[in-house]
Amino acid sequence: MRAKTFGGPQGRIPRICALLERCSVFADIGCDHGYCTLYMLRAGLCDRAIISDISAKSLAKAQKLLSGYAAQGRVTAVCCDGLGGAAEADLVLIAGMGGEEIVSILKRGGIPPRFVLQPMRDSQLVRRYLIAGGCAVDVDDLFRDGGDGKFYFVMRGSNVGGTPAYSEEEYAFGRDSLKNPLFGEFIAAEIAKTEGYLKASMSPQNREQLTKRLNFLKGACHEL
Ligand SMILES: C[S@@+](CC[C@H](N)C(=O)[O-])C[C@H]1O[C@@H](n2cnc3c(N)ncnc32)[C@H](O)[C@@H]1O
Suppose 39 and one of 17, 45, 86, 92 were both cysteines; which one would form an S-S bond, judging by CB atoms 3.0 to 4.6 Å apart? Predict the structure, then answer.
């Protein structure tokens, strides 16, 4: 695959793909462009794939990209909400959506046997849902996209086996993130961002909330 398509080898998409393991039926929920499914098929990591998106226009992009594999009967395209078309998948990817949306999809469709989840925000909601649901989370880390320089959280696991209780910091940032050499930079960037927000005028409630977050971030920083 061309580096341009992926945003370089350290881009968000390749970093997600690096966590995808061999499976029988792979499902890419909210597939949009379909790059992750192309990676799975090209790398021989799945026998078949389900590409699914709530938007027909988004799904059409993946269908175009994967038309050769679809002609071989290895790709099924489903235009639907959440996990509706993915019942037979043994590995499910949900990437590039908010944490609230990911949790809503999991609540409605059930937690898949194996999953990789990459929330764009509110990642703590996803962690809480997975751990309360008895999942074994084997990766709960952060990475920085080598292209846009932004930090992203990613989780991988299975729907059985359980995970020992998390601390508040682990829920907020991810268990493995806390030990990641990038974590200091992430926290410093979050503190700077929050201090920047606090310079604007806002309601007392919003100020209180932001100040609380700033203190929490500073606490996590001191524990490093
Ligand atoms: C920002 S794109 C992410 C695409 C790709 N997964 C990635 O990580 O780059 C989000 C995609 O999720 C789709 N989407 C949003 N909510 C969805 C839902 N409930 N079920 C299925 N697809 C959804 C959108 O239509 C969009 O194509």
Answer: 17
Q: Is the pLDDT of residue 137 over 80?
A: yes
Tell me how far apart the alpha carbons of residues 172 and 1 are, in angstroms, rounded to a whole number: 34
Q: 10 pLDDT band (50/70/90 cuts)?
A: confident
pLDDT, mean of residues 25-51: 98
pLDDT classification of 224: cutoffs 50, 70, 90: low
CB proximity list for 75: less than 8 A, separation 6 or greater:
37, 41, 48, 49, 50, 51, 66, 69
CA of 40 from ligand 1 middle (Å) equals 18
Q: Which residues line ligand 1 (CB under 6 A)?
A: 29-32, 53-55, 58, 81-82, 95-97, 101, 105
Token readout for 211 is 């100040």
Domain boundaries, the chain: 3-176, 183-222
Residue 37 Cα to ligand 1 middle (Å): 14
Could you tell me the CATH superfamily of domain 3-176?
Vaccinia Virus protein VP39 (3.40.50.150)
φ, ψ at 72 (rounded to 5°) = -85, 0
Ligand 1, atom 7, lies closest to the CA of 96
